[in-house]
Design goal:
Number of strands of chain B: 0
Order of helices and strands of chain A: EEEHEEHEHHHEHEHEEHH
Shape of chain B: elongated
Largest interface: A-B, 27 and 16 residues
Order of helices and strands of chain B: HHHHHHHHH
Oligomer: heterodimer
CATH class of the largest domain in chain A: Alpha Beta
CATH topology of the largest domain in chain A: Rossmann fold
Radius of gyration of chain B: 20 Å
Number of strands of chain A: 10
Structural class of chain A: alpha/beta
Structural class of chain B: mainly alpha
Helix content of chain B: over 70%
Strand content of chain A: 25-35%
Radius of gyration of chain A: 18 Å
CATH superfamily of the largest domain in chain A: P-loop containing nucleotide triphosphate hydrolases
Strand content of chain B: under 5%
CATH architecture of the largest domain in chain A: 3-Layer(aba) Sandwich
Helix content of chain A: 25-40%
Distance between the termini of chain A: 31 Å
């Protein structure tokens, strides 16, 4: 059956270096609306950089990146701000703002970007926190949260603007298997209920195979495999086969 | 590693951006209020204690010299002049650069290292306007106020030291202290500390905001913030004193 969904994220011939170190070399892929792409690879192969390029926290040296028909590599600050409103980013350590409570962390973008009245912001924040199971922890600061709670608060913040594209950098790192599985379930539910396109960088093959539709494998800055789990399993690259294997 | 010219170019552009963004909406009122509390209220005990102690020490030193020349009546005058014109503003600037500068540098650098700044940017919030502008603004607004507290704490310390020796009355001490003090001697030095505040806020934020060296960078940002703020304050003081004397020639001591 042909998949007629249009790509919402397109990465075209992207290269990025930090000084002498070439992190990405001519990497290309696309992700269709409502699809979950898991990016796998050994440490230091450019997976997190790929996510940061997608939300323009870093700029590529070469290549083009489209988010929902907007080419972002040459965009100015106001254009990027508009594109970022369609995106959410779950950072590896959640990256919640230390000075603010969980509630304030979530309310900040709503108050700044939507101009909604206070009661609507309250209700939106409460709804998202309920989704991630943190409804009772609104007044806690990030320092008072456990690793799993911080991750869920980070996910809530990434979802607060109801993004069309969600980027998640190692959502299950540092978590026990049960908590990691809960985070995976939250991501899956977000895709199923809101048709959110999700790109996940992960080392957790078990979780990735549970929720991923497609898989991209990076090695030494090059993409060596891309496709479904079965396609990657039959890749000619041994590293790709080993990374996708649960054994 | 930047050469000195590149460094001053970068830090100047950073400061100019802070000035420009101060006047562009939205005003980060909550952040400004928080930072004013951090810079102002939390620095107050240090400034008051230092001013008081410095006032006493100054009085003890000047007394010995002025007694030799039979000019004990001038002790309050010399004391007030020294404090209001130079010691108060400069010491307040250096104290705040130590306490607040290190804090700003370390906090912003830590936010960079822990991806909090990226987190803010990813939410379409301008991290520079959210983090840097309130800190610079708070330093600019609070340093003149802290200087006033420093001046009057110094005056109180000086009076108590003098009272212990000569039992001078408060009224006489104050009348002698302000006998030759003109408004330019008082206003211009206090206002120049706004420039010191701008230097502290800008330099400290710059080192924090531009760090990229992980945990080690946090410590380095804090150290560089204090060293560079203090150095720039002293250099700026030379220029500002010259400007004040040019604008108010009668304010020369």
């Amino acid at each position: 059956m042909t998949d007629n969904r249009r790509p919402i994220v397109v990465f075209e011939q992207v290269s990025k270096a930090f000084g002498e170190k070439q992190v990405l070399r001519d990497v290309s892929f696309d992700v269709k609306a409502g699809e979950i792409l898991c990016i796998l690879g050994r440490s230091g192969t450019g997976k997190s950089v790929t996510l940061k390029l997608l939300i323009a926290l870093q700029r590529p040296d070469r290549g083009k990146i489209w988010i929902d028909d907007d080419e972002i590599t040459s965009m100015n600050a106001s254009g990027l701000s508009r594109v970022r409103r369609k995106m959410g980013f779950l950072f590896q350590d959640a990256a919640l703002f230390d000075d603010l409570t969980v509630y304030e962390n979530l309310a900040l973008p709503l108050a700044r970007l939507t101009g909604r009245p206070r009661d609507e912001i309250d209700s939106a924040v409460t709804n998202v926190l309920k989704q991630v199971g943190l409804a009772c922890d609104t007044q806690k600061t990030p320092a008072a949260l456990s690793g799993g709670m911080r991750k869920r608060a980070g996910l809530a913040r990434a979802l607060i603007l109801n993004p069309r594209v969600l980027l998640a950098d190692e959502p299950s790192s540092g978590l026990d298997r049960i908590t990691a599985s809960e985070i995976d379930d939250l991501l899956l539910r977000q895709r199923n209920e809101k048709n959110t396109t999700i790109l996940i960088v992960t080392h957790d093959v078990h979780g990735a195979r549970k929720i991923g539709d497609k898989f991209a494998v990076l090695d030494k800055g090059r993409m060596i495999a891309f496709g479904t789990a079965e396609e990657v399993e039959s890749s000619e690259h041994e590293i790709a086969r080993r990374l996708i294997s649960e054994r | 590693m930047l050469n000195p010219i590149e460094f001053f170019g970068e830090i100047s552009l950073f400061g100019l951006r802070a000035v420009r963004d101060t006047f562009s909406p939205p005003l980060e009122a909550n952040q400004v209020r928080m930072q004013m509390n951090e810079v102002g209220a939390r620095s107050l005990p240090l400034v008051l204690a230092s001013g008081f102690a410095l006032g006493m020490v100054m009085s003890l030193h000047t007394r010995g010299t002025l007694v030799t020349f039979g000019a004990t009546a001038l002790i309050p005058t010399v004391h007030a002049m020294a404090f209001f014109v130079e010691i108060g503003p400069l010491v307040a600037g250096l104290l705040v650069s130590g306490r607040v500068g290190a804090g700003i540098g370390a906090v912003i650098a830590n936010m960079r290292v822990t991806e909090q700044i990226d987190g803010i940017e990813s939410l379409s919030v301008d991290s520079f306007k959210f983090l840097v502008v309130p800190r610079v603004l708070a330093c600019v607004l609070m340093l003149p106020l802290l200087t006033l507290f420093m001046d009057f704490a110094g005056l109180l310390g000086g009076f108590l030291a003098e009272f212990a020796v000569s039992h001078i009355s408060v009224a006489l001490y104050l009348s002698r202290a302000f006998m030759y003090l003109e408004w330019p001697n008082f206003i211009a030095p206090v206002l120049k500390t706004s420039v010191f505040g701008f230097i502290i806020g800008t330099a400290s934020s710059y080192f924090g905001y531009t760090t990229n060296e992980g945990a080690q960078g946090v410590g380095r940002a804090a150290t560089n913030s204090v060293v560079m703020s203090s150095l720039l304050i002293i250099l700026a003081d030379v220029i500002l004193v010259k400007c004040i004397l040019f604008a108010f020639p009668e304010s020369a001591l």
